[in-house]
Design a protein that fits this description.
alpha/beta; Rossmann fold; seven-stranded mixed beta sheet; 7 strands; about 40% helix
Length: about 180
């Protein structure tokens, strides 16, 4: 199994609550990498409110970004997008998780495949996820399953990531600093 030092590109997990500023911070991290900017979108416009939210995000990013919609096939999309000369933003893991649960997919297998794919990326990748474990225990079984899977997913990705940042009130706090990455010859 590879370690963070074996990565050729920096992988960052950006966590935060709703409206914490995590997506905007993640966009800035990816833009700072330069090269082709790729946005892997997991959300679908299922209603007017979500369509408006997606439109706001696209407007904020501007025309420099290429958007790939990956509501379920995120691991495959990441493998295709994370190529040399590009920088990739995945926004967001918890919406992807919700999509998997609602589609009846094998969530544990999908999460493991995504984490394994992070070992093979050839470009910087920033993944955004909601921190959902700070609230009350949900009332229904599906919401509890979502919260539990989200906690495990965040832990798995944080373990695999080179750097982890928590954004609260628009302020990024580094939880796991990136170490100097060794480039193999």
């Amino acid at each position: 199994m590879s370690t963070a030092a074996d990565h050729r590109a920096l992988t960052t997990l950006v966590l935060g609550g709703a409206r914490s500023g995590k997506s905007a911070h993640a966009e800035r991290l990816v833009e700072a990498e330069g090269g082709a900017l790729v946005y892997l979108a997991t959300a679908e416009a299922g209603d007017g409110e979500m369509a408006e939210r997606i439109a706001r995000h696209k407007t904020r990013r501007g025309g420099r970004w290429r958007t790939i919609e990956a509501p379920l096939a995120l691991t495959e999309a990441l493998g295709e997008a994370a190529q040399p000369g590009s920088a990739v933003l995945v926004d967001c893991l918890t919406i992807w998780l919700s999509n998997l649960l609602l589609a009846g997919r094998d969530v544990e297998a999908e999460m493991a495949a995504l984490v394994a794919a992070l070992d093979d990326v050839s470009s910087p990748v920033v993944l955004v996820s909601n921190e959902v474990g700070l609230g009350i225990v949900p009332e229904n079984a599906l919401a509890r399953a979502f919260r539990d899977h989200a906690g495990r997913l965040n832990q798995m990705v944080a373990q695999a990531a080179d750097r982890v940042v928590l954004v609260t009130a628009g302020l990024p706090m580094t939880l796991k600093p990136a170490r100097e990455l060794e480039m193999s010859a």
